[in-house]
Amino acid sequence: NAGVTQTPKFRVLKTGQSMTLLCAQDMNHEYMYWYRQDPGMGLRLIHYSVGEGTTAKGEVPDGYNVSRLKKQNFLLGLESAAPSQTSVYFCASSYMIGAGGGTDTQYFGPGTRLTVL
Amino acid sequence: AQKVTQAQTEISVVEKEDVTLDCVYETRDTTYYLFWYKQPPSGELVFLIRRNSFDEQNEISGRYSWNFQKSTSSFNFTITASQVVDSAVYFCALSETGYSTLTFGKGTMLLVSP
Fold first, then answer.
1. Which uninterrupted H or E stretch holds B72?
2. What pLDDT is stored for residue B98 in this prediction?
3. How confident is the model over A44-80, as pLDDT tens digits?
4. Which run of H or E residues covers position B30?
């Protein structure tokens, strides 16, 4: 099992350019997440998905869009990159736990380091 | 509302010292799960432990141990005889019934010097 993989690992963009980050998981997890991590800010949730075809906003969703067309993939898009989006992006996935729909252990991808000039 | 507090922003110890990382949580749920993750300087996030709210038994794994106390809403992590390889940022997190997201603490950076 590869677990959670992210593509690409590094990327440099110019302001205004667009790009898509791909996350793939082979653990048949229902839930998938995109986080960003900035120095001293911990992990901040951007968007998440509780199933194929469904997405929801997290703590810092502005400037990002997501899609989950297949259960194993979760795409994060930047339509018009800004320097404030320079960050390390992590994808994670998990099973649902309990009847109430809580999240079980989240497993993380290796991260994508994005620089916007 | 759910909240996780890791009051220690940074801890510095010398190798072989014992160190405890504190985690205090707030929740109204009676069923919940607590987690610890490690982020070494290489950057990946590594899952360490998961504990459910009905199991207050302490856990030991090698040099690592976890003390879960519902009475004080704490889930503290102790490293015995610390090593340089333990240098990392450690995150505590909370999962509650009905919430499909984790609530993370801000993390504690542990620096172990030789």
1. none
2. 79
3. 999 999 999 999 999 999 999 999 999 999 999 999 9
4. none
Mean per-residue pLDDT for B91-112?
A: 92
Encode pLDDT of B61-85 as tens digits.
Answer: 899 999 999 999 999 999 999 999 9
Name the residue facing B35 among A33, A45, A105 (closest C-beta). A105
Q: Is B84 helix (H, G, I), strand (E, B) or coil?
A: helix
Whether the CB of A88 is below 8 Å from some CB of chain B: the reply is yes
Residue B60 has pLDDT above 80, yes or no: yes
Q: What is the DSSP string of A48-95?
A: EEEETTEEEE-SS-TT-EEE-SSTTEEEEEESS--GGG-EEEEEEEE-
List chain A residues with CB under 8 Å of B93.
106
Which burial class, exposed, middle or buried, applies to B100 when counting CB atoms under 10 A from its CB (0-12, 13-18, 19+)? buried
* Pick from B47, B95, B101: CB nearest A45: B101
Q: Which residues have a Cβ under 8 Å from the Cβ of A15 and sit 6 or more positions away?
A: A81, A82, A83, A116, A117
